[in-house]
Amino acid sequence: MIPLTPLAASLPSTVPFVGPEAQERARGAPFRARLGANENAFGTSPRAIEAMARAAAEAWQYGDPENFDLKSAIAEHYGVPAARIGVGEGIDGLLQVITRLFVTDGTPVVTSAGAYPTFNYHVNGFGGRLVTVPYRDDREDIDALLDAARREKAALIYLANPDNPMGTWHDADALRRLIEDIPEHAVLLLDEAYVEFAPAAAQLAMSVEHPRLIRLRTFSKAYGLAGMRVGYAVTTPEMASAFDKVRNHFGVNRVAQAGALAALQDHKFFRRMLADVHAAKVRIGAIAAAHGMTALPSATNFVALDTGFDGTVARALVAALSARGVFVRMPFVAPQDRCIRVAAGPDELLDVLDAELGAALAEATSVVAVAG
Amino acid sequence: MIPLTPLAASLPSTVPFVGPEAQERARGAPFRARLGANENAFGTSPRAIEAMARAAAEAWQYGDPENFDLKSAIAEHYGVPAARIGVGEGIDGLLQVITRLFVTDGTPVVTSAGAYPTFNYHVNGFGGRLVTVPYRDDREDIDALLDAARREKAALIYLANPDNPMGTWHDADALRRLIEDIPEHAVLLLDEAYVEFAPAAAQLAMSVEHPRLIRLRTFSKAYGLAGMRVGYAVTTPEMASAFDKVRNHFGVNRVAQAGALAALQDHKFFRRMLADVHAAKVRIGAIAAAHGMTALPSATNFVALDTGFDGTVARALVAALSARGVFVRMPFVAPQDRCIRVAAGPDELLDVLDAELGAALAEATSVVAVAG
């Protein structure tokens, strides 16, 4: 017996997501199309890759624990003071810091049923009590989130805009009203991991401030640096400074800082990437339509494809695609779990999806028909 | 007001170490000799640098959250089962995971006064109660640590072997006796960050197991990858699996995993690095002796240099060296704070130390004499 805290003893040894590598080890072959983790298969700015290769030669030195250069560049990018920025090991790392600051035994926290599981993992990990509200028309339901937060006296409200896993969004006006209505007992976490892909109307100005608002952004998606673990919060100086109470000060790796800085400054690559992602999403929609599936409107770099069936068929479809070398994932709860989720990527990856989707769908529907 | 937990509200926004970059920003110039963070200035295996540069091009993909390849390689390196290995974001990241598993409000934790401050930061951060025992003859005092742990019913005992900041060590026999005596209520954290530099007699065999023993090792020091944040625990499968309850599963960056794997396998570079570090420590001792200072015996990649004065002079010396472009640090508590701590490095860095030490020491002693 090891003397774990009562909370730690009560937690499962769990994992929010099984990685594609584990699936590849299980199936004994690499995926031919890695489209399941909302990664940016259009890759990373060549200037960022070069900056990381250069920084690798200095990897014997710790990274700057204050992330000064990166913070300054982010602040300049948005025209906000650097004191409003907090940098962390991806949004996942920041969610850990933030839940740790606000959640203890029994703290009520409000999110949507089927929203980001890693947030739930951290809330549970600090002993919080998750209160969930359902999606409404495949979007997170702002009014229901607010109602639940007021009713439960929640300390945290989580909203992703655009949403993962559905790709749907709310316009900036709706967000502005939500922010005006943040209850006094609550901090709003606005997870904007995918916001760079969103239409202008869904992009809330960075000048919008509130003492209990934390906006989370990342280099993992639009900047193609998922593997480097760099995210940031834009919030108040008071909040950003509170992160220093508990964060792993040397946690953001030196090469990651260099890569993020260079990626942020490569506007040309960024613009082409946005166009490539848009075209790929159009093609994913066409591939889906050719097999009787419907693409939901998407403000992200992925598309939720409505199978027209239920979660059982969608799960069978994910498995059948995986067996054929196509890695995708799907929403966790009904009725969103009628969909599968496919990330934008270059044509050579979408060709594989195109070639395999028909047979995989036939297999998924027949397996389920037999089982039924 | 933001609704922090009572524990979070009670914590200072602190930083265990001010980074050299912050000092460089303050002095308006880069250091000429970066010898203060126990980094390995002999650098990283060229094979590891190449592996990282290659991996940078795949940075759009998340790293394997199971760290499978790296774990397997570490297991093979030591001839132990992979289930005994837990990988994390440096020893700092692992210390956060471990304190979180074992420390809650008021949990007693035993360490040495003046030992690793980042461990203390995490213990305080989870509300633990630190109980410290003094060093004895510049070494951590195993008997005193055990006595305090029994008296306080401590949940964690922290011992670094070799020790940081003094560079001193205990032989494997003493460690074996300590491990046999771990109280039933306690887990022993044996921090072996510097063990690869230690004499064979101070290297405890990896076959030594105990249900409440966690050994911590890192790629930051001997493998020259401080900037990449990769550490690992060798412990029981039960303990390693408990890490999965709370760790940031995608936290170890993809490029870092690739670099650590390649560094572990470059035995030739490793052997030459050990010889280089040894020679540099001899030279640091000679430089110190030429200015009337004494090098303590060191089982690490750094040397504690006894100034022959007290903490006031040593602090003034660290400041005077910093003003002259030489970054070093020093122990935090008396009487160890009579020393400064200098990392091994190539001759061009030690040349700077050699050139500046005399004047810096004269300045430090005269300033203190005037102040006195």
UniProtKB/TrEMBL annotation, chains A, B:
<protein>
    <submittedName>
        <fullName>Pyridoxal phosphate-dependent aminotransferase</fullName>
    </submittedName>
</protein>
<keyword id="KW-0032">Aminotransferase</keyword>
<dbReference type="InterPro" id="IPR015422">
    <property type="entry name" value="PyrdxlP-dep_Trfase_small"/>
</dbReference>
<keyword id="KW-0808">Transferase</keyword>
<dbReference type="InterPro" id="IPR050106">
    <property type="entry name" value="HistidinolP_aminotransfase"/>
</dbReference>
<feature type="domain" description="Aminotransferase class I/classII large">
    <location>
        <begin position="35"/>
        <end position="352"/>
    </location>
</feature>
<dbReference type="InterPro" id="IPR004839">
    <property type="entry name" value="Aminotransferase_I/II_large"/>
</dbReference>
<comment type="pathway">
    <text>Amino-acid biosynthesis.</text>
</comment>
<dbReference type="GO" id="GO:0030170">
    <property type="term" value="F:pyridoxal phosphate binding"/>
</dbReference>
<dbReference type="Pfam" id="PF00155">
    <property type="entry name" value="Aminotran_1_2"/>
</dbReference>
<comment type="similarity">
    <text>Belongs to the class-II pyridoxal-phosphate-dependent aminotransferase family. Histidinol-phosphate aminotransferase subfamily.</text>
</comment>
<dbReference type="InterPro" id="IPR001917">
    <property type="entry name" value="Aminotrans_II_pyridoxalP_BS"/>
</dbReference>
<dbReference type="InterPro" id="IPR015424">
    <property type="entry name" value="PyrdxlP-dep_Trfase"/>
</dbReference>
<dbReference type="InterPro" id="IPR015421">
    <property type="entry name" value="PyrdxlP-dep_Trfase_major"/>
</dbReference>
<keyword id="KW-0663">Pyridoxal phosphate</keyword>
<dbReference type="GO" id="GO:0008483">
    <property type="term" value="F:transaminase activity"/>
</dbReference>
